[in-house]
């Protein structure tokens, strides 16, 4: 047990330092209309019924990371196990998808993961590690949402009405841009079941 623990810590140290080095970049990627458009276009093509709150959730997760996991790891683990045990595996679904323009953070599809490895303890560990090294800032979230609005105003993204965007932005302002759930439409059509991890950790179960 002790050997396994120290091995995990060694692996984590390696990936953590790699993540920190990779995080050095010039400029704010959330202010780039081209980069954000490519990210949003990829998600909208997969999930054409995405609502504004689904767009915001994507941007929140991409900028802030899995911060909720650190608020109460015990609750996070309990909820994860409860959800995971009820899921049916599905090898035909994609294993992961990027949620940042730079690809450093991903959603791991639990149904596909269960079909591939079914090692839920490892994924829980990777989620908690990712929460430690993927802490974002509200400034990035605000920048991302502002860039999204610019993309809509310019017509590059045309599916969301300006009036509805303004109303939703007002709600975000009033609520302090806090994390929210997926829309009912998104949950009904796409049945999302995933957890966030740093992309660098994917090699631990995809190699």
In short:
This protein has 207 residues and is mainly α.
What would you note in describing this structure?
There is one protein chain. The chain has one domain (36-200). Residues 17-26 have low confidence and may be disordered. Helix 3 packs antiparallel against helix 8 (138-154). It contains eleven helices and three strands; from the N terminus they run H-H-H-H-H-E-E-H-H-H-H-H-E-H. It has helices at residues 2-22, 33-46, 52-64, 68-71, 73-86, 110-116, 120-133, 138-154, 162-175, 184-190, 203-206; strands at residues 96-98, 105-109, 194-198.
Key terms for this structure?
mainly alpha; single chain; 11 helices; 207 residues
Order of helices and strands: HHHHHEEHHHHHEH
Distance between the termini: 24 Å
Oligomer: single chain
Would you tell me the structural class of the helices and strands? mainly alpha
Fraction of residues in H or I helices: 55-70%
User: What is the molecular shape?
Assistant: globular
Can you lay out the helices and strands and say which pair or pack?
Blueprint: H1 2-22, H2 33-46, H3 52-64, H4 68-71, H5 73-86, E1 96-98, E2 105-109, H6 110-116, H7 120-133, H8 138-154, H9 162-175, H10 184-190, E3 194-198, H11 203-206
Antiparallel strand pairs: 1-2, 2-3
